[in-house]
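User: Could you go from structure to sequence for me? I need the amino acid at each position, not a summary. Structure tokens:
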């Protein structure tokens, strides 16, 4: 079996960004895939786009809650399941492509998904996982984005998760028995004047989600008031608009 790491920004990238990342990052097996899993499917954009592009494939999107569109391609089906269960993979056999969305720093979830993916992946199949990390250049004058990510690291640590978990994905593939592991890292500058419009759109879309990443986490782990957390998110975005030396690592 072949393990391929693809890292990408944000699970619910809408419209054009989803089409771009499906076309650019998704593997192209020698034979058309018959069965495809999209784990941590979220709102299901990747599964829907892949099903549209591959009408002879049957695509299953799996997540803990149902939040997908009502109208989907006939070859796309969404299922509710808990991927932290050891037997989540039992209904599936000989899956040609397994696509895994961002894991939110959850090491236990990563282990459960890798175990199940190895058991249900077809010989010669492909497992693809994407996620993001951020690299910020050290500065004597830290920006609002620096402060925001210091708090994110602290909150993740207190919740038993790891903000930099994507850096361990290559080792986890090998530990679970996958071979031919390839790690693609795309460094997108945190510069509003960067000439690539797709890169700018990815950074903007990522920053637009700061509240969804942080509000509940900061309240539970850091006991921050909602208004304080909202201000932190706005200050971090303001720093991005001015330009920050660093990269969104995809």
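Assistant: Here is the amino acid at each position, in order:
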């Amino acid at each position: 079996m072949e393990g391929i790491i693809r890292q990408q920004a944000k699970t619910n990238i809408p419209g054009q960004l989803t089409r771009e990342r499906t076309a650019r990052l998704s593997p192209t097996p020698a034979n058309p895939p018959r069965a495809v899993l999209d784990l941590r499917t979220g709102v299901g954009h990747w599964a829907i786009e892949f099903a549209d592009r591959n009408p002879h494939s049957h695509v299953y999107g799996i997540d803990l809650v149902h939040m997908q569109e009502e109208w989907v391609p006939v070859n796309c089906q969404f299922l509710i399941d808990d991927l932290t269960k050891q037997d989540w993979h039992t209904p599936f056999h000989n899956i040609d492509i397994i696509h895994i969305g961002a894991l939110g720093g959850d090491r236990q979830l990563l282990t459960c998904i890798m175990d199940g993916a190895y058991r249900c992946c077809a010989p010669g199949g492909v497992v693809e996982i994407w996620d993001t990390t951020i690299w910020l250049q050290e500065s004597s004058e830290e920006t609002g984005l620096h402060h925001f990510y210091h708090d994110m690291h602290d909150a993740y640590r207190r919740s038993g998760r790891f903000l930099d978990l994507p850096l361990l994905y290559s080792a986890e593939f090998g530990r679970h028995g996958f071979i031919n592991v390839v790690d693609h890292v795309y460094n997108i500058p945190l510069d509003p004047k960067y000439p690539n419009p797709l890169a700018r759109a990815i950074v903007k879309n990522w920053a637009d989600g700061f509240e969804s990443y942080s509000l509940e986490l900061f309240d539970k782990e850091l006991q921050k008031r909602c208004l304080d957390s909202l201000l932190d998110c706005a200050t971090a975005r303001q720093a991005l608009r001015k330009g920050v030396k660093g990269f969104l690592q995809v």
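One structural detail worth keeping in mind: The first strand starts at residue 2 and ends at 6.
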